[in-house]
Design a protein that fits this description.
The complex is a heterodimer of chains A (110) and B (152). Chain A is mostly beta strands. Chain A is elongated and about 60 Å long. Chain A contains no helices and eight strands. Chain A has a single domain, classed as Immunoglobulin-like. Chain B has one domain (3-147): Immunoglobulin-like (Sandwich). Chain B has helices spanning 3-22, 34-44; strands spanning 50-51, 54-57, 61-64, 68-74, 84-91, 98-104, 111-117, 123-131, 136-147. In chain B, strands 1, 3, 5, 6, 8 and 9 form a six-stranded mixed beta sheet that branches. Chain B has a three-stranded antiparallel beta sheet with strand order 2-4-7, with no helix packed on it. In chain B, β8 and β9 (136-147) form a beta hairpin. Chain B is globular and about 45 Å long. The A-B interface holds A 21, 25, 34, 36-37, 57, 60-73, 75-82 and B 66-68, 78, 91, 94-96, 98-105, 107-110, 112-119, 149-152. Chain A: This is Thiosulfate oxidation carrier complex protein SoxZ. Chain A: Residues 11-105 form the Sulphur oxidation protein SoxZ domain. Chain A: InterPro entries: Ig-like_fold, Ig_E-set, SoxZ, SoxZ_dom.
Chain lengths: 110, 152
């Protein structure tokens, strides 16, 4: 069974000026099990990671990341975004089992 | 099996490894593990990455290999006509070299991404960037790891 995908946390300014480049910082709790580890009985613990992150702005994909087992537990992902207009972000994390966790955020023009 | 046979097999394996290394792009600088060289070749489709434009920021010494902060930036205007499309991160001596693949768009305004990675031992971290014109750029940097982070 896949490990739970924890509550996502996203930080970005509530408002920004047009033309400004803001930073969006995201964190989600997840074990990111590599599949290389063994349990106490010597059995391999199956791989179970967040394998994809997608950020959309008003429905348009602006940034995405494919994660491998070498990404640390509780993946932290940050990226810039150039503000042109107000709108809404949607962030999606997907694990190996295809389960998704979504988070949304609004951006206002200052 | 005779020890001679064994030795021959090792020599063959070594020769195969060297063949991989010698076909590496010169921009790679130092040698890479065969698996890493293969991963880079897969990313670029065999094209030779140039040096420059890509900057990797990692601590020179990581006390804990379980969580090593990494920032990759690429020098690009990030316009519709000229932008960074993809950035691959590889760890040369991890059990598997793949770390992350970032997909960029001009909407970002700047080509940058930050994350935290696992490093099993002291090794080179490599970034390969694909530009919208189809060219590739590469950077590499060494991180000394005090405690490895691959759950071994």
């Amino acid at each position: 069974m896949a490990a739970p995908i924890g509550q996502p946390r996203v930080r970005l300014p509530a408002s920004a000026k047009a033309g400004e480049i803001i930073e969006i910082r995201t964190l989600i709790s997840h074990v990111m099990e590599t599949g290389n580890r063994r349990d106490q009985e010597g059995k391999t613990i199956p791989r179970d990671i967040i394998k994809r992150f997608v950020a959309k702005f008003d429905g348009q994909e602006v940034f995405a990341m494919d994660l491998a087992t070498a990404i640390s537990a509780n993946p932290y992902i940050a990226f810039p975004f150039k503000v042109e207009k107000a709108g809404s972000f949607e962030f999606t994390w997907t694990n190996d089992a295809g389960e998704e966790r979504k988070s949304t955020a609004e951006l206002k023009l200052a | 099996m005779t020890s001679m046979g064994m030795r021959r097999r090792h020599l063959l394996a070594a020769a195969a490894g060297m063949a991989v290394v010698t076909t590496l792009p010169r921009a790679a600088g130092a040698q890479m593990q065969a698996a890493t060289a293969e991963a880079v070749r897969k990313a670029t489709g065999g094209k030779e990455p140039q040096e420059g434009r890509v900057t990797l920021r990692l601590p020179p010494i990581a006390e804990n290999g379980n969580t090593v902060p990494i920032t990759v930036t690429v020098d690009s205007p990030m316009t519709a006509a000229d932008h960074v499309k993809t950035v691959w991160i590889f760890a040369d001596k991890n059990p598997t070299p793949d770390v992350a693949t970032f997909h960029f768009t001009p909407a970002l305004g700047r080509a940058q991404a930050d994350t935290r990675m696992r490093l099993g031992q002291t090794q080179d971290v490599i970034a390969v960037a694909q530009m919208s014109d189809g060219s590739f750029y590469m950077a590499r940097t060494e991180v000394k790891v005090t405690i490895g982070g691959c759950g071994g």
